[in-house]
Design a protein that fits this description.
Lysozyme; three-stranded antiparallel β-sheet
């Protein structure tokens, strides 16, 4: 009599869990990330509020990202991070707006294992390489944070590869490309973005081995990266959330 009731009770608990998770998303501005095989591992992604997240697996390929600290009953100062919509901020070719110190602080806040000195070095290189090619460094830096889980890695790409954007990662068994140092890895990232977003010539010598596989000028904005840079249909949206957080936290 007891055994048949166990599966039934489990199903009820599961349904309540779904409703609880939904309530958490509504109250805290979390989001559902779909696990894809290309580009990055979303289980490394950080909650939209900037704190270390917890992951709740709803189904085989979905994670709900939320931060327990955000679910206090009486929240007075916490604001929901909106998706950016301004085209000038979402255009891949263009000028970034934030200072290197703001980019470095954003990276360090989300991964205190990266020292402020190291974060500052990476931020400055992103600005220099992006400005040389006319790429929006705010977007490039946000994409790096998404692809590497704020330099935590943990997927197929290893930290020593200096691969900041999943270049050459075609599935979960391939390590992707490796570069001699941080600057060359960032340069390859910027060149790959430029390949997608522009027909203009490169300022630096080509270091991106996959540059020739891209249809030049085929995309213009962040959302267009979905389905092209990565198979994940929410890929561009994830970058927009990170951009929104980065701008809001540095107002």
């Amino acid at each position: 009599m007891i055994k048949p009731a166990v599966p039934h009770l489990f199903r009820i608990t599961l349904k309540k869990r779904y409703w609880l998770v939904l309530l958490m998303i509504v109250l805290g501005g979390g989001g559902i990330f779909s696990e894809e095989s290309t580009g990055h591992d979303p289980s490394l992604s950080i909650g939209f509020t900037g704190r270390q997240p917890l992951m709740i697996r709803l189904q085989q390929k979905d994670f709900v990202v939320f931060c327990p600290a955000d679910y206090i009953v009486l929240r007075k100062t916490k604001a929901k991070t909106p998706l950016l919509k301004q085209k000038t901020l979402l255009s891949i070719m263009g000028q970034g707006r934030l200072k290197a110190s703001a980019l470095a602080a954003f990276l360090h806040r989300n991964n205190n294992g990266i020292s402020t000195t190291e974060a500052s070095k990476i931020a400055k290189i992103y600005i220099e390489e992006s400005n040389a090619e006319g790429v929006n460094y705010d977007i490039a830096f946000s994409q790096m944070c998404l692809e590497t889980g704020f330099l935590r890695y943990g997927g197929t790409v290893l930290p020593g590869q200096n691969n900041f954007c999943g270049l050459g990662v075609l599935d979960k068994k391939t390590r992707g490309l490796s570069f001699r140092d941080i600057r060359l890895g960032i340069r390859a990232h910027i060149q790959h973005l430029k390949a997608y977003a522009s027909h203009a010539n490169l300022h630096h010598n080509l270091v991106d081995p996959r540059f020739r596989f891209v249809k030049r000028g085929s995309i213009k904005e962040v959302d267009d990266l979905s389905g092209k840079w990565a198979a994940d249909k929410r890929y561009g949206k994830k970058i927009r959330y990170l951009l929104g957080r980065m701008y809001r936290e540095n107002v």
